[in-house]
Design goal:
By secondary structure, the chain is mainly alpha-helical. It has 2 domains: 42 residues, no CATH class; 42 residues, no CATH class. It has 5 helices and no strands. Helix 1 packs across helix 2 and helix 3 packs across helix 5.
Length: 93
């Protein structure tokens, strides 16, 4: 995640407050509930790359012995695998 988790709540609060002040949105629940929901959505989206990285690590465990023997460059293999999954799944990072 590229944004510190501590900032997410601040960004969510400012976003909801700004949108409601400008009357761009009308809340059907309390402001606090809207902020909490936005925080959850933001964290889910921001952690997409973290989840993808973990999946790539799991996939590459199959090739540990080859990597350790020096036949494969782990960093290069990691990036290529990640790029392939991003392209296949149309993930925006």
């Amino acid at each position: 995640m590229r944004i510190p988790k501590a900032w997410v709540s601040v960004i969510a609060r400012k976003t909801v407050e700004s949108l409601t002040e400008k009357r761009l949105i009308e809340l059907k629940s309390s402001k606090e509930e809207a902020i909490k929901l936005l925080e959850e959505l933001m964290l889910h989206e921001l952690m997409a790359e973290d989840r993808l990285n973990e999946e790539v690590r799991e996939l590459l465990k199959k090739y540990d012995s080859e990597i350790e023997k020096g036949r494969m460059d782990y960093r290069r293999l990691f990036e290529l695998t990640k790029q392939k999954l991003v392209k296949e799944r149309r993930i925006i990072l």
